[in-house]
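Hey L., structure's done. Input below.
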Amino acid sequence: MMNWKQRCMATVAMVSAVGMALAGCGSGASSSTGGAASASSGGKVELTYIHRLPDKPGMTSVEDIVQRWNDANPDIQVKAVHFNGNASDLIKKLETDVKAGNAPDLAQVGYAELPEVFTKGILEDVTAEAEQYKGDFAAGPYELMGIGGKTYGLPQDTGPLVYFYNKAEFDKLGIEVPGTQDELVASAKKAAEQGKYIMSFQADEAGNMLSGLAGASGPWYTVEGDAWKVDTETVGSQAVAKVFQDLLDAKAVATDPRWDPSFDAALQQGRLIGTVGAAWEAPLLMDSMADKGGKGDWRVAQIGDWFGNGSKTGPDGGSGVAAIKGCEHKAEAMKFLDWFNTQIEDLTSQGLVVAASTGTPSTPESWSEFYGGQDVMKEFFDANANMGDFSYIPGFSSVGTAMKEQAAKAAAGTATVESVFSTAQTSSIDTLKDYGLAVSE
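Output:
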């Protein structure tokens, strides 16, 4: 099995293999001088960085981090802008801004989204400017910020899936974190009899979570020659579908959408006592239960062998910061970005499992208190090391949308979980063809 570095390198190899085809859809490399960055009459460089980091109370705010940079670098001033919206909305905004000639210099872009953003022609080639900072980051994430041998930014974080659970409630029920599929289903049914749920089926996260869980067993997307081969109905996908279908049929799984207030309510009321989530959700769960109980009761564990994956997990998120087409001051932008993305403790406070290799983050005190003294950052890095071999295609956000719609039907009992993965198959092929890319039938 591939480790994290090998997995990322494989992804890059696949994207590079179709680099020429992607370039035909519109290359992002540009030396345009029409971007938002500008130099004042005094020679000061001004950059704009747009991000979607949580910026919740108790975290070191992005504004404060950037202010430290600005105080120390009067000739390179950065304005940080928080974007209140999802990743697809940000991509749409960037497209519009690039066309209008007022795009930001730097923007947060998920690894899964980078191939899509590239095809839209809104990235700036910063290969030469980023090269000197390569050693500051893990090799895999750094390579994921490149396509076809060119680099378009620097990595920021990764997002392995882990299991969050309320140990106090588990102890009351006389159950432990399940190790096998049978144990998971049995424990979920036992908990449901008491009005508790140790798993959640999050329809609005289907594109990320279900693909990540299934992808732990192997990739959905590979390249054969100059064409993409698609198989979203793998053995891993079938196992994930079976487990969640069993839980749904037994009414032994919570079905509150992840980003709906009902999800937080389930946590706060003690109904949801266990859930799969990305590592970056650790502070979000804390925030959901602030002053509502649970402090010191929750823990983080590796996902068990629930889907035939052994100790393997999959990705849910993870992103870098890309240079956007029109960025005039690429060297200064990469200098700032290298500094920002290596502020390990600050970014850890934002809930990130950082991609920087310049230090080892410690578990924030508030996290340790909430998670019963556990070194949760170690759990996250263990999960990082256990990532399965998975990659994305250009336009994966469209696939994710189709999966979410079908998953909502499955949650309502009008479709099967298996149909979520068959929908992903059809949507993936259609999406690739829409991009003008060859698909191996």
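The longest strand covers residues 45-51. Residues 1-41 have pLDDT under 50 and may be disordered.

-- N.
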